[in-house]
């Protein structure tokens, strides 16, 4: 087996049961985990300049090799000296393989042992992406962390396809490792597949751990599966993954999910939600979300979040943002700025509260603000029990924590529950999770 | 608001002045450019990046009160204390002018004796002086133009005359309704009629206003018709009060306006350039000469480049080598080209920053030329070398 040089140093600075706060030293930047990573799919994040992103506290941003390979192409990025140089982003970068995009965005994708054959959306040509190709693209883009090409299946699929995908992912990781030309300055993370099946997940984790990779991601979630299965998979994986390596839950997500996963021992997260939801005028606040398009916002003279020290909350009020959102570019910009600040503030709070030994209190305060009636969702209660965090002070005095929805709100579609939870009817699985 | 002329040229109407506006950190030299805004903020430049533009040059904004009719009531603005508070722009000077030349356009056919009509994103609106004054008193801008009935160049003499009558009447209404907020600039219209322009200017000059807003330009008159019309108006207006105009955007038009004696310009030129993917590259040489080094650029006319052009795909240099704007200090033409291709908003943000910065520097160079008496030579050199270049391009293509 190839000896892997590590250009990633993970130092754990604090713990509470399974939760950890760490310092992650990467080639371009030293990061603090738990950490949310904004998604800059095509080499930019929704109208925000680099210096605004730095001021907000972003440490790692994501690029996507699938999109970047199409435009501006990895040859150009290589000529520019890598994506960092091209974008002039001085901090850390992570590039995803594009497997998820190919499978979720394209109707014509064929997965074989060789790789993924898909039709380029730019010129319609048939292209084959092999694990080797994918790693070579990563190598030209030069991000600090690169994701192995995995055989992604939607979590709603059942049957032998999941097993096939898991074993293929394992075979592919060896090909990725062999093809990796820059282990000295790019960290290859393996992705745990296996759907929601604990047995398959276990086999996958063990085999990946044997490869002694710099870090591990938990994949195959963020696809609309029920929350109960979601947290159990995260718990199972974090229990089995090595302590001294970072754990990245891909496609997560909502602030609540991040708090739960951090309690269970995960470190890194990415999601398009904070920036994408600005299209709908949705702002992230401790109480959950604020729908700025709503007519009630037209006279509201409070800032979006009175507790938030970001530039937007310090200078603007809800009624002004209300008149901008969905109509003017500046509305999206200001809202993206606030939403990302919210996510980075959450990350910082998670990190510091663990380091300073007050993580359980942070979790309780967080849940209390989000569920003032004490109706903490059942899956959260269950997850916190496994995480060893006592949240009884935030739960209403029922025999067990109940999902407190009226029968009108519970829909047959799992996503109806998510919609009810977030007070929206606009989200579908595809619209939320499709592009990383 | 205080204004004083520092230097006036005898050879032309051009003058350098100093404008002190309550909220600005330092006095602003004129001729000056007002930044175009949408609902009070630049279209794309985030408030965090505004300070990176030259200051105090970039501290004057033009705001159209009509933008706020879409979802923001005047009572709410009043509750907060006015536009400066609401926009978080406590160090900026705000000039309120109803017409923004992009989305709030005067609709002369629908105007009545009761009010001016505008096409806006909320539909066609009739704005009466009383409503307008209410907006002004809630918004509390530093400067505001009185309500005008602007008409395009092709209307009948009768309609033109009516527009002057209405504009004068509305000016009197505005003055008597007295919003106790900001300095009023009397609106002067008159279309392309020298007589009507003269009449309007004479009447407005009799009123007690702090400055003048010269309207009715950029509505179909020829660029060659304008100097005479401007001269007719300027000859009558007292020298010591500032003159603001809108509808003049191109460098040639700015120079024309300055030569006539205009001090403040609000222009949508930068917005149009930005939307089109253009970046300004014309020379800021003191002499006005436009034979700059970048004349070999493809897809350009040496005054601006179109960053959508495939020629810039691999160009790892900034838009302009010695430009000190945020965009040129941090990003390359290749990156902006990529952003335009993938339809990312950051492209417009970066272009608006550069274009605004460049145009503000243009005004700076013009002021320096007026100060050392070389404005006319500067203007001639600028216009001729630009014309030469366009001619040369036309022959070669």
Automatic annotation (TrEMBL), chain A:
Signal peptide interval: 1-21
Location in the cell: Cytoplasm
Family indicated by similarity: Belongs to the queuine tRNA-ribosyltransferase family.
EC assignment: 2.4.2.64
KW Ribonucleoprotein (keyword) present: no
Source organism of the structure: Arachis duranensis (Wild peanut)
Gene Ontology process terms (BP): tRNA modification
Residue positions binding substrate: 96-100, 150, 193, 220
UniProt-annotated stretches for the region RNA binding: 251-257
Active site: 96, 270
The tRNA-guanine(15) transglycosylase-like domain, residue ranges: 18-370
Annotated GO MF terms: metal ion binding; tRNA-guanosine(34) queuine transglycosylase activity
Catalytic EC class: transferase
Binding site for Zn(2+): 308, 310, 313, 338
Protein name: Queuine tRNA-ribosyltransferase catalytic subunit 1
UniProtKB/TrEMBL annotation, chain B:
Cofactor binding, note field: Binds 1 zinc ion per subunit.
Gene Ontology CC terms, in alphabetical order: cytoplasm
Domain spans labelled tRNA-guanine(15) transglycosylase-like: 13-387
Record key words, sorted: Cytoplasm, Metal-binding, tRNA processing, Zinc
Names of required cofactors: Zn(2+)
Pfam families assigned to the protein according to its UniProt record, in alphabetical order: TGT
Binding site for Zn(2+): 323, 325, 328, 354
Localization: Cytoplasm
GO biological process: tRNA modification
Keyword Transmembrane helix among UniProt keywords: no
Keyword Zinc: yes
An MF annotation (GO) of this entry: tRNA-guanosine(34) queuine transglycosylase activity
Subunit structure of this chain's protein: Heterodimer of a catalytic subunit and an accessory subunit.
Reported function: Non-catalytic subunit of the queuine tRNA-ribosyltransferase (TGT) that catalyzes the base-exchange of a guanine (G) residue with queuine (Q) at position 34 (anticodon wobble position) in tRNAs with GU(N) anticodons (tRNA-Asp, -Asn, -His and -Tyr), resulting in the hypermodified nucleoside queuosine (7-(((4,5-cis-dihydroxy-2-cyclopenten-1-yl)amino)methyl)-7-deazaguanosine).
Family the entry assigns: Belongs to the queuine tRNA-ribosyltransferase family. QTRT2 subfamily.
Protein name in the entry: Queuine tRNA-ribosyltransferase accessory subunit 2
Species the sequence originates in: Arachis hypogaea
